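Allow me, if you will, to draw on your knowledge of protein folds for a short while. I am sending you one protein, given as its amino acid sequence and as whole-number tokens for its backbone shapes. Kindly check, if you would, that the fold set down in the tokens agrees with what the sequence suggests. The record follows directly beneath this note:
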Amino acid sequence: MPKFTDREPLVKTLNKYVRIVRTEHCFLLFEELGKSEKWTQCLEVFRWMQKQRWYIADNGVYSKLISVMGKKGQTRMAMWLFSEMRNSGCRPDTSVYNSLITAHLHSKDKAKALAKALGYFGKMKSMERCKPNIVTYNILLRAFAQAGNVEQVNDLFKDLEESIVSPDIYTFNGVMDAYGKNGMIREMESVLSQMKSNQCKPDIITFNLLIDSYGKRQEFEKMEQVFKSLLRSKEKPTLPTFNSMIINYGKARLRERAEHTFKRLTDMKYTPNFITYESLIMMYGFCDSVSSSRDVFDGLMRSGKEIRVSTLNAMLDVYCMNGLPEEADRLFERVRGFGVVPDATTYKLLYKAYTKANKKELVEKLLRHMDRDGIVPNKRFFLETLEVSGSSSTDGADSTSDKAGLKRTELSVKA
């Protein structure tokens, strides 16, 4: 497979290798382009394919493109491809409808998307070649669980039981994970019981999502019971198992339990990853032990390991949440010399902390850095920062509900 670069137009490169490029290569291109912001180039590749003598209209190609457009929020383009497919003589199948449903579920208007998804689901049941399969049910069940629509989830489970399709581990894990992330513990446990009654054994994903869900709700007795069950099972804990326990103990200010979990991790011969260290840094921050957070961060700096921007953000966040904006500023200046490039989250959390502490000189200094780096804060950046700052003044000093997971802020880059 030839290498494609940005040095010349994609179609020109395809023409250069026209004798060897085939459908499977284009699939790989769709995959890679879909991961970036170059989704429009997928359409260029598609148009190029259609001009080749070897091209035959194929459901698989359309299904893949619809999926890519959906992930990029391009629902109209996904619909256009669906129409294009039918006009080309292809008859939709289950896979195409699954991609179309997923595309709609990526749109911002969730209520409308769920209604559309159910409409397609009903249509699929009426067509022999498009009968819903387990993938269809899994997509819909997870979507409605994420929306907190318990009644619709139950209806879909009932429909699944009456069909010839059998639920699999992904069915139950997807719904439990969605319920767990919504804090709907009772509903999550109901699905777990359903899973057991279907003789479906939990896998490591099941254990991890249960541990994380109970931990986030600070139901530590249940979390620890699940962990013990995991140790007794054929499954083995993974780093996410320990990372989740460390950060959730930290949010509850249970430092000793978090440290014991980390010790257990190392005793079991696991090698901590960068998320483990970030969890430790945040844990100590929640427990008002800034010096311990700094020790972990400095240890990483001395180790010679690559410092990720997310790790930097964790340490900066610890300084900010503990009312130490000057320390955050000093660290921000220091790490820039080590080649760590700040991202949107870095600027957002520093701007929020500096404005909250009324440190005008630090705000001005930060804005100069942003200007030098070609970063222009858009309207959403300031609105979100003001919103967070306004709410934090009334939430009280002990509010730790969202300190660990700052959303990425949209920043526009100067041309």
Remarks:
- The first strand starts at residue 375 and ends at 377.
- Residues 1-7, 388-415 have pLDDT under 50 and may be disordered.
